[in-house]
Design a protein that fits this description.
Helices cover 41% and strands 13% of the residues. The protein is an alpha+beta fold. The protein has one domain. α1 (6-12) runs antiparallel to α3. The chain is elongated and about 45 Å long. The two termini are 22 Å apart.
Length: 86
Amino acid sequence: MDIIEEDDKILLENNRIANMSRIDWGKTMAVSNQYIQKNILRYMLEKFGYYIYSTDDIEINHLINKNNSSGYDLLIITPTNKNIRI
């Protein structure tokens, strides 16, 4: 939980959200999940020279057209500059 941002932790610990149906929980947590996954991947991969970005990150605006129009939420840039879209 140390790598999860405080705003996302608050949602994960919210009883109202925790007791939702799976479908509603997934819709409610979708945006936070994107950032949680980004932080997990950064924690695991940056030490190997990978860079992980969300499509909302300003650093990669030149690589994408618009948020979600590209069909992915995360971008991993490998040490060999290959782009992996998730």
